[in-house]
Amino acid sequence: MTRVIHTGDTHVGYQQYHSPVRRQDFLDAFGAVVDDAVDDDVDAVVHAGDLFHDRRPELPDLMGTIAVLRRLADAGIPFLAVVGNHESTRGGQWLDLFERLGLATRLGDAPTVVGDVAFYGLDHVPVSRRDELEYAFEPHDADYAALVAHGLFEPFAHADWDTETVLDESDVDFDAMLLGDNHTPDSAEVAGTWVTYPGSTERASASEREGRGYNLVAFDGAAVGGDDRVEIRRRALDTREFVFVSVDLDAGEGEARVRERVREHDLADAVVLVEITGEGDPVTPAAVEAFADAEGALVARVTDRRTVETDEEFDVSFADPEAAVRERIEEMGLSAAGLDVDDAVRSDSIADANVRETVKSRVEERLDDPAAFAAADGGAGEGDAAGDDTTDDGSTGDERPTGDDATDDGTERSDPSTPADGQVSMEDYL
């Protein structure tokens, strides 16, 4: 029997809500996975991509990750991984550096055998390049085989990758596909193969309400009753508390009612997310956030979902100007990429703090498709519809960073090899 921890989407370096404490939380969650691996003496830790949140991690995040991987190496437990879209660079990968340091193995088309399982890897591949894939893997003589991959695979939410095509065209018969990119944990059986996501190890967005964790995967037919061959168990992680407060205001109710509802929860060191609906009086989000901070919250964010109408003589709501803007955008004939950016900037469902990351991800998704940056002759109707790849919370299902030559403010570097302040580049090492 071979037992491995299957994890992914650790997003080390993500300073969520601009909070240094939240940034440390992401590294701590990855460290907790490794601590469990050492305590349980598993045969390997398998990481399905997006170890880092950005392709240019800052030095403390890089050093912290190396320290975590050294704990695993000191315990004699291999770290097997693939490259996700967030951390992918155009040259060498951070995973290559860790491999040179003896801290990791980058999985590919040749088998890496641990126990009685042959592990293969498939890094994230943009949609525009997938038709070129041949899924050609070298043979193995192990009892089991598993493919570790990063992408949004069917039959799970926001899928853009056909799982059956991968399984049918592969040279190897896989017993399991251990996946990353979808932050929601789930498992399914496709064409006789178990396909599973462990979910993210920390909440990377407000839509990730369920607890975080990872998978413990055992390859042993006898342990699961014979023919199934693979057993997948979900394990929880103790991560930062998120408090979700929904307030539906009746007529005449306002900020006092919102505070009352917030006060019902234990806010100590928690991320507090308040959503306001209903017909009550106007509420100032900043005042509620300050109240939650005073009650001990680490971070507080308030979203007012209500649509407020103007005086009846105008017969217009605040939604009407948005329609006028959309009409003007259509007349401009923006490219498909331009429409993606416009949608991210003006979307009501994307928090201001997340707009930059969402724009970066959408531009990166289009980089390998030059046609996406060509102006549409007939307006938006002739290009791709903006928002096709968005999730329920308005973010893309698989966020992508911008190119290596872009600075944080979107301008181009005069020397692409020069790192941003506090950041390190693969060119410095490889």
SSE blueprint and pairings:
Blueprint: E1 2-7, H1 20-40, E2 44-47, H2 59-74, E3 79-81, H3 94-100, E4 105-106, E5 112-114, E6 117-122, E7 144-150, H4 163-169, E8 176-180, E9 186-190, E10 193-197, E11 213-219, E12 230-236, E13 242-249, H5 255-263, E14 271-278, H6 285-294, E15 299-304, H7 319-332, H8 336-346, H9 355-366
Parallel strand pairs: 1-2, 2-3, 3-4, 6-7, 7-8, 8-10, 13-14, 14-15
Antiparallel strand pairs: 1-11, 5-6, 9-10, 11-12
Helix pairs in contact: 1-2, 5-6, 8-9
What keyword list fits this structure?
single chain, 430 residues, alpha/beta, six-stranded mixed β-sheet, globular
In sequence order, what are the helices and strands, one letter per element?
EHEHEHEEEEHEEEEEEHEHEHHH
Work out the helix count: 9
- Tell me the radius of gyration: 23 Å
* Parts with pLDDT < 50 across at least 5 consecutive residues: 314-320, 378-421
Mean pLDDT metric? 83
The tally of beta strands, per DSSP, is 15
Bin the helical content.
Answer: 10-25%
Largest sheet: 6 strands, mixed
Question: Roughly how many Å apart are the termini?
Answer: 37 Å
Strand content: 15-25%
In one word, what is the shape?
A: globular
Based on secondary structure, the structural category is alpha/beta
User: How would you name the oligomeric state of the polypeptide chains in this document?
Assistant: single chain
Give, in spatial order, the strands making up the sheet with the most strands.
4-3-2-1-11-12
